[in-house]
Amino acid sequence: MRRLECLDGVRGLLAVYVMLSHMAPFAALPDWLTQTLSHGGAAVDMFFILSGLVITRSLASFDWQPRPFLIARATRIFPTYLPVLALAVLVQPIPADFAALPWIGPDSQARGIWAQGWPADWGAELAAHLTMTHGLFPAGVLPNVWVSFLGAAWSLSTEWQFYVLVLFTGGWLRSDRRDPLPLLALGFLALATAGAAWQAAAPAPWQFSRAFLPLKAHYFALGIASAALLQGQSRLYAPILGAVLGLIAAQGGWDKLLVPLAWTLCLGAERRPAAPGLRMVGHILRCPPMLWCGAISYPLYLVNEPIQKLLGFLLGRIAAGEAALFTLLWIPLALVLPLWAAAWLHAHVEAPAMRWGHALARSLRTGSTRRMLEAEG
Questions:
Q1: Span 348-376, pLDDT tens digits
Q2: pTM, full prediction
Q3: Where are the alpha helices (DSSP H) in 24-39?
Q4: Other CB atoms closer than 10 Å to residue 30's CB: what's the count?
Q5: Is 131 helix (H, G, I), strand (E, B) or coil?
């Protein structure tokens, strides 16, 4: 498959934006700048669209075979995730001492970023994180499990729900020798509609967090339609895009309408030849710094939160309530340290594990194909 370099740049841009959205609320910055950097959730939604595209292409490359695909995914996700989760567990007891940061008001987004205190149901919550099932529990069962320990990991649970559902649904559709992408896109759109209806009607104890796949399925549907578009199936994308925009508007998420529109712009820059107005976008997304950030995007997305929490605790005591001093130290360190940690994790953990996992997955796929041909012969 052709490498989608523009979308590698998008991945890097989104990860950096999420890091900035975690950093900005703690600094003494102008309100307009803090507000500009306050849409980390929208960046994660675009990650879901990107995942819908990438995962369907990956499944096609493995001919929709479960074992090679799941091995490739597990070796891509868990080797980086587990040490970062261990770090998050270690910093969990550290208090978020906002008394040492008096410029952070009671309504600041900063108060919802860092996990605070040891969870009462820590055993169940840790088990849910280790199995990435923490998005499957409604509020009445484990109320805050989706953001306990490692807040950014909520989206990994959503991703794994998508992996499993698209794998087996797509494989079933593929068994009929037809292209599964159109029906998959429509199916995930229907799932999102059902999820919105459930949230509107269900009592509070049975409400789910945004880590529950049906609440984000429309973004994955748009990613699947994007994969079809890159394969030359141009008729599917526009109706799915319109339906996704309509569903977002119906839920009152007007600020998130920009997500599918910005994605469409980036996708247009990836297509070749790109429209003249999008060539500059493509050049920016393909530039080396963007591609480097794209390479370390997954560890950067995970590791910035626990590192920033530990750093904030230390700097809060050094600054002793001085907003200017804290901000002067906080901004460069809260950016450089996560970037350094992410680069180290990518070089020494993520990349070697991915190489090993893909080699194993390819060998399993080759063996499975050989056995199939022998059986048919």
A1: 999 999 999 989 988 887 655 444 434 44
A2: 0.93
A3: 31-36
A4: 8
A5: helix
Residues of the chain short of pLDDT 50, as ranges, are 369-377
Complete DSSP assignment for 258-314: HHHHHHHHHHHHHSSSPPGGGHHHHHHHTSHHHHHHHHTHHHHHHHHHHHHHHHHHH
Say whether the peptide bond before residue 260 is cis (omega within 30 degrees of 0).
Answer: no
Other Cβ atoms within 10 Å of 178 Cβ, number: 10
Structure tokens at 84: 């970062």
Q: Which residue has the tokens 């590791």?
A: 303
Interval 249-302: pLDDT, tens:
988 767 789 999 999 998 888 877 767 778 888 888 889 999 999 999 999 999
Q: How many CA atoms lie within 13 A of 203 on its CB side?
A: 3
Amino acid making up residue 16: V
Distance CA 305, CA 22 (A): 7
Q: How many residues does the chain have?
A: 377
CB 49 within 8 A of CB 220: yes
Q: What single letter denotes the amino acid at residue 340?
A: W
> Does residue 46 contact residue 297 with C-beta atoms inside 8 Å?
no
Provide the token pair at 68. Answer: 């090679």
| AA identity, residue 92 | Q
Q: Quick one: 63 exposed, middle or buried, by C-beta within 10 A (0-12, 13-18, 19+)?
A: middle
Q: What is the pLDDT of residue 118?
A: 87
CA quadruple 8, 14, 18, 21: dihedral, nearest 10: 150
Task: Give the number of domains in the chain.
Answer: 1
**Domain range spanning residue 19?**
5-376
Q: Cα dist. 304→51, 100, 157, 205, 342 in Å?
A: 21, 21, 18, 31, 8
Structural tokens at position 340? 């350094």
pLDDT (0 to 100) of residue 377:
46
Q: Would you report the helix, strand and coil content of the chain in percent, each value rounded to 5?
A: 75, 0, 25
DSSP string, 50-97: HHHHHHHHHHHHTTT-HHHHHHHHHHHHHHHHHHHHHHHHHHTTS---
Angle (CA) 97 100 103, round 5°: 110
Tokens matching residue 198: 């459930």
Structural tokens at position 24: 């900005």
Q: Which two tokens stand for residue 288?
A: 């080396």
Q: What is the pLDDT of residue 372?
A: 44
